[in-house]
Amino acid sequence: MDIIAQHIATTLGIQEHQIEQTLHLLRNGATIPFISRYRKEATGGLDEVAINDIKENAERLEELIKRKESIITTIEKQGNLTAELHRKIEACWDAGTLEDLYLPYKQKRNSRAEVARQKGLEPLAKIIMRQAEGKPEKHAHSFINNEVKTDEEALKGARDIIAEWVNENEYARQSIRRIFKSQGILYSKVQKGKEKEGEKYADYFDYERRLERCPSHQLLAIRRGEHDGYLKVSIMPDEETALRQLNRIFIKADNECAEQVEMAIKDSYKRLLRPSIETEFAASSKEKADTEAIRVFAENLKQLLLAAPLGEKRILAIDPGYRTGCKVVCLDEHGTLIHNETIYPHAPQNEKSTSARKIEKLVEAYRIDAIAIGNRTAGRETEHFIQNLRYDHEIKIFSVSENGASVYSASKVAREEFPNYDVTVRGAVSIGRRLIDPLAELVKIDPKSVGVGQYQHDVDQTRLKNMLDQTVINVVNAVGVNVNTASKHLLAYISGLGPQLAQNIVKYREEHGMFNNRRELLKVTRMGEKAFEQCAGFLRISNGSNPLDNTAVHPERYKIVQQMAKDLGCNVEDLIRNKTLLEQINLTHYVNNEVGLPTLTDIIKELEKPGRDPRNEVEVFEFDPSVRQISDLTIGQQLPGIVTNITNFGAFVDIGIKENGLIHISNMGNRFVRDPNEILKLHQHIYVKVMDVDMERKRIQLALCDPKE
Questions:
Q1: How far apart are the C-alpha atoms of 623 and 661, rounded to whole Å?
Q2: If 0-12 CB within 10 Å is exposed, 13-18 middle and 19+ buried, where does residue 623 land?
Q3: What are 422-432's pLDDT values in tens digits?
Q4: Of 56, 362, 414, 707, which has the fewest CB atoms closer than 10 Å, so is most exposed?
Q5: Which residue spans within 337-385 are E strands per DSSP?
Q6: pTM summary value
Q7: Burial class (CB in 10 A: 0-12, 13-18, 19+), 278
């Protein structure tokens, strides 16, 4: 029986056999998207989130096992490993408890207790700790020597040793942990003399709250203020409660020796035990806050990547600007740059007529279908200018988020794509491509740079990167990509590929032309059967030799579809999009030892709507034309807006001015809202009511509203 699977089952509340099967697949090189999509019978239908949780828990437990082995080896070399201690370590599955067990055997530095031992005072400490005799001074006197000059010095050394014993006692540490957990208070104070310099942390200059009830965003803000040197932060429970608990554990008598032990307990708590446990809780609370912040970031990133694509349309894209002008590019249906130039419709040049003629001619000459305008500096003004032009055919105009566009335009990826163009052209191209297919463009940018996070620079960067990378992988594979048109950057996120195989696919495509069927992928350098198994179902080939290659049906299941067609007296192509024929199929006839109803149901859904895209259709949006700056806002005003970022305390909304407004979670409806994602989605078009405007701090408070009200 897999001991790791047992512990994960207890932690996650998932059946043990599901976890065992999932771990087996992961250990044999299967990816999370492949397992969740094509191995539902094995896992019991676990989704990407559950599989990733299993993977992370398994990795944590494997590290814990390695740590246990290291501790056992170290103690054994010391000659201190008893059968009972060995049993306790082997049975321990909590990292904190494990370190408690190891603490007495750690190599001691030149601590006060170690100095006292070197002076020969440990026997005195043992006498006092037994609390069997009432006069500790009488025993202390016999320990006076060249290094210990007085009775009090001997007693102080003995108390230092006792303090260390208290600190290293497993039961005592667990007791103090429980008190910290139930009663620990987070205190935040301003550093003396930093009041003005650290004004942005003013909310936390005199802050206290039960640690377990402190919201993650507040804790991360406090820790940032501490890191920046403006706040002094501590975590502690009531001291008297903690000392009473320790006294109950260690005080065994009512005499002078017991008084010495009580003095040692107080010293141990203040100097050793409390700081140690406080450090643990600072780390664990930060980890918990990180987890929540990373979850919010990952959810926002997922929504951003799933933003609606316009599809293969010819785009005129504009990166707006004032003094330096607006960079204009024209892209064909595949996002290929076919023209670029600069116009100057705004101050100081104010070349409106010339700029208008240029745009109108470009729209006509390049048969433009839609215009994409960056939403930052001069975005509203440029949008207004473009909307008032006359075109020879219908043109849709879109405001496109520029978040991360500047990062892309200065990146190595952009330089490889456009070695002969400057950053302004690259930025405009990125804006246009985001309209055609946001996912294909955004995968070229570090996820941290897309502007949808919460305290992303304050959380564990390794955990953040892993979660965001996995989010991108999950989304790319959920959507699927056309292997004949996808960039190497998009292909790299496909299950089983990675950067090198993605590059090899593009190189093969350049040398041999378009792929005609999925099996041809096996001709790509370094594409083995395992990699093919993992990637094939997520790669699409349109107009190829096999119609199933343009669906999410995996090649390993083609024979089943062929048998279905044969049983119905038709060919495979006849089945696709033919709901009447598909409804005649009795799935139970095709169940076998490897394939069950979950997979067969997915196959039928895919045949009914092959290559179905989970993304919505893009919609045109217009801001209120009367609002151009914060001074145009009035209390009670209702405005259209776009959700730009979601946190666990609310959502930020672009209402068409420089400053985004905030809908606090308490202003999202007439009911209690636990998570803003229950109500809103990134880039959602909504209506808001202006509740408050702080002109000095440039803060806008909004409430979600119904435009019909």
A1: 14
A2: buried
A3: 999 999 999 99
A4: 707
A5: 337-343, 370-374
A6: 0.86
A7: middle
